[in-house]
Every structure is written in structure tokens, then in C-alpha cells.
Amino acid sequence: MTTTMEGGAARRERPAADSVFVRACRGLPVSHTPVWFMRQAGRSLPEYRKVRAGIPMLEACRRPDLVAEITLQPMRRHGVDAAILFSDIVVPVAAAGIDLDIEPGTGPVVAEPIRTEADLARLRPLTPPDVSYVDEAVRLLVGELGATPLIGFAGAPFTLASYLIEGGPSRTHARTKAMMYGQPELWHALCGRLAGITLEFLRVQVAAGVAAVQLFDSWAGALSEADYRRFVMPHSAHVLSGLAGAGVPRIHFGVGTAQLLTAMGEAGADVVGVDWRTPLDAATALAGPERSVQGNLDPCALFAPWPVVEREVRRVLAEGRAAPGHVFNLGHGVLPETDPEVLTRVVALVHEASAR
User: Fold this and answer.
1) 62 noted as active-site residue
2) How does pLDDT run across 75-109, given as a tens digit for each residue?
3) Catalytic residue list contains 227
4) Angle at 166 between CA 164 and CA 172, to 5 degrees
5) pTM of the predicted model, to two decimals?
6) What are the phi and psi torsion angles at 211 (to 5°)?
């Protein structure tokens, strides 16, 4: 595998570069619609619960052998077209000096939220040695996966900022928006620092060999388009543009973002991830005809009788044909109670129904 330099970042020739997944991300002809699932690495799988038993989430994310095993589990079981690195969006901010934990049933909880300029000093820049375990895990997986693509990921600045300001998950993002509106200089300083951390975290993954990256802006749907463009888009664009020369597709995903799809595409996405609320043909018109789309079966549809699941899968495939490329996925992550056998059947159905 050769290494070249482009755009100031190391770029490696990847055996997965001509995979059906990467080709769909680039809008190129494919033999079938590729499929993978957000949160496929864990949660619903009994083998995941077995290997994670007694191991805290952050510790699991820092053990390359465990990361590799969990990442590979859905590949073995479901036959999906891409693996996604087992990690969490708060891993890089924890590595950058923030005292936090991931509490079962709650999510990330920050010991001392960032709410003043003095607090911001606790969030230092990220360096590659800070996340050497991620580099090691990616290299292990690339060796195991061969021509099967590995997707790297990170949290977008807005979603990370919300966790750091609120101290944990929030339904209203009240403190976040209070800073955004009332202390715009502090807001942009925080998001600028988070954009730098996120970009460095993704560059580590790209240098280690991931075939694509996904930027998760899980809470961006709480914003209007005007606020997104003013307060958030410049920082997400900094991350995505920083990977423009890396040679890997860039996927941008958020929840409840119908009003933001155009702006999210403009931020630098090659692929716009779409949740279940917006049909893919409508999303294509909003994101732009030059961008591929990813999604967007409702995760709750997987609990319906199989004929209903089949009908919904075929509907999503039909709507996805409006885009130059379509990567089949759920409209959000796999729910923990999902029957893994249904996911396996969905993969087989997508492959069969979309065969060219």
C-alpha cells in the first residue's frame, strides 16, 4: 500500500477504494445498492453484549483488540457492505482533556461543563498520540477487512459543543443556544477548537486507512437554517474541507435536518445522510443532484411484520434512485431491542432487490 501527500495530509491507496460502497458514495455505477447500519457495531447483538460485559464504554473504545472485534461482529453476522469503526463521538474530547464519562442509559456526562472563557482553557488541541489506540484499531481492521471498506467517524462541532455546554444530553439545548445567541465570540471560539479536534481525529483515521468518514451532527436538527448557516456551518465546513484532499468520501448526517439538507451539502459533503422523516427523492432535490444520499428506513419499521419491512425497504430503494448514488441505511441508529435476524434479512433483500 503506497502513501502520497495531498492537501497536507497523508493519503494511502486503499484496497476498498473500488468497493460498491465507495462507488455509490461517489455516484459511480454499482452492481447493487450497498447497505450498512448506523450503530451496527454493538447494541442489538448478543455477541457484543457478551464481549462488553463489565467493560465501561470509554475503556472499550480505547482497547484496539476489542474495537476490532466489535467492529467485525456485524460483518460476520449480516454481510453488510461496509464496517464502521466502533467508537463514540466524545472519545476525542475526552482525549483532549475533558473529564467525562459515558453512563449507561444516559450517554455522555461532563463533570465540569464549559460555560465561560476560562472553562475553554481545559479543552486543548488534539494530537495523534492522544488517540494512538484509534490508529492501532483502524490498522488492525484494515488488515482484517481487505477490500471491504471501513468507515471512520467523528462528532460535528455543534453536537459536541452541546454536550460540553449542557453537561450531558438535552432535549431543548437551552444553555447551548443561550451561549450561541448571547456570547457569540465564546461560541465560535469553542466550536473552532472543536472543529480542530474533530479534523485531527478524522485525519488520524484516514492516515490509518479508513475508506470513508462520516460526520455526525446528531443535534443540528434543533436549529433553523439561518442559525445553522451563521453559527454552525462554518465549523462543520472547516472539518469537511480539511479532508477534501484525503481521497475518501465524506458523509454528513444529522437527525431532524430536513430544513438543513441544502446547507449540510454545501458544507462539503459528498454524501448527505437523511433521517426517516424526509423521502430520499425529496432530500436529493434539497441536497443537490451532484450528491449521493444515505438512508433512510425508520429504525422502528424493523419491529413490524416482515411484509411491512419488505415494503418499506423497497420504497426506500425506489426513492434512492433519484440520487446519483444511494447507500442504504436506517434513518438513525439500530435500536437495542432490534432482532438481528431482521437486519440480516434486510441486507439480503437490499442486495437482491437492487441487483443491476
Assistant:
1) no
2) 999 999 999 999 999 999 999 999 999 998 899 99
3) no
4) 130
5) 0.95
6) -95, -15
